[in-house]
């Protein structure tokens, strides 16, 4: 492995000092931060990451997509790669019983695809089963209306919005109208 040369500036404008340091990648537990010579241990990075997660999920125990993006950006700034940061985020949320919107949407997507598999359409009973599974996964963090909107949105986004209707009623259109979609 080859080292990189970085420029470190210290001091004020009048007495600024510039020096160049060779940085070699090593397998040590110290990590070079974006700000030069300051270092953080792996444990300090984990602690900061956990604190950021707790801070954003403090009030509702729910991590939405925006909060997830912010947390991942902080992890990247700390030098953690995106896959490791995502895995750590999921693990921390599971440990703290926080619900992640992206995990919930993935569960809904898998449930919708499974329901579509047998005949290519979703009937009202299958929709209610997806809603029940989503409600269980959401752990009370989202109400029925919000979960129905999420399911409908996932169905529309993935193109899995073919539904079985009765002779005299279209439950899906009526539900979408009721939800204001």
Kindly describe this structure.
This protein is an alpha+beta fold. The chain has 2 domains: 4-97, no CATH class; 101-179. Helices cover 55% and strands 13% of the residues. It has helices at residues 42-56, 65-77, 82-96, 101-117, 124-138, 144-158, 171-179; strands spanning 4-10, 17-23, 30-32, 39-41, 62-63, 99-100. The strands form 3 sheets. The protein has a two-stranded antiparallel ribbon with strand order 1-2. Helix 4 (101-117) packs antiparallel against helix 5. It is elongated, with a radius of gyration of 24 Å. Mean pLDDT is 79; it is low at 23-38.
List strands and helices in order, with pairings:
Layout: E1 4-10, E2 17-23, E3 30-32, E4 39-41, H1 42-56, E5 62-63, H2 65-77, H3 82-96, E6 99-100, H4 101-117, H5 124-138, H6 144-158, H7 171-179
Parallel strand pairs: 5-6
Antiparallel strand pairs: 1-2, 3-4
Helix pairs in contact: 1-2, 2-3, 4-5, 4-6, 5-6
Main sheet characteristics: 2 strands, antiparallel
Q: Tell me the structural class.
A: alpha+beta
Gyration radius, rounded:
24 Å
N-to-C series of helices and strands: EEEEHEHHEHHHH
Low-pLDDT residue spans: 23-38
The count of domains is 2
Strand content: 5-15%
CA-based shape: elongated
Mean pLDDT: 79
Termini separation (Å)?
55 Å
Q: What is the helix content?
A: 40-55%
Instruction: Supply the number of helical segments.
Output: 7
The side-by-side strand order for the widest beta sheet comes to 1-2
Record field, number of beta strands: 6
Key structural traits:
181 residues; alpha+beta; two-stranded antiparallel ribbon; 7 helices; 13% strand; elongated
């Amino acid at each position: 492995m080859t080292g990189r040369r970085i420029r470190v500036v210290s001091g004020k404008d009048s007495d600024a000092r510039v020096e160049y340091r060779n940085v070699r990648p090593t397998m040590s537990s110290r990590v070079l931060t974006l700000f030069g010579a300051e270092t953080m241990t792996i444990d300090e990075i984990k602690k900061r990451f956990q604190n950021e997660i707790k801070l954003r999920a403090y009030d509702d125990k729910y991590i939405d997509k925006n909060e997830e993006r912010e947390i991942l950006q902080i992890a990247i700034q700390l030098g953690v790669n995106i896959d490791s940061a995502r895995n750590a985020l999921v693990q921390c949320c599971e440990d703290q019983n926080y619900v992640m919107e992206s995990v919930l949407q993935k569960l809904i997507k898998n449930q919708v695809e499974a329901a579509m598999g047998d005949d290519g359409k979703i009937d009202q009973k299958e929709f209610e089963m997806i809603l029940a599974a989503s409600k269980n996964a959401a752990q009370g963090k989202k109400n029925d209306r919000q979960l129905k909107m999420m399911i409908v949105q996932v169905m529309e986004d993935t193109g899995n919005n073919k539904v079985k209707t009765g002779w005299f009623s279209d439950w899906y259109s009526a539900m979408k109208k009721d939800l204001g979609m």
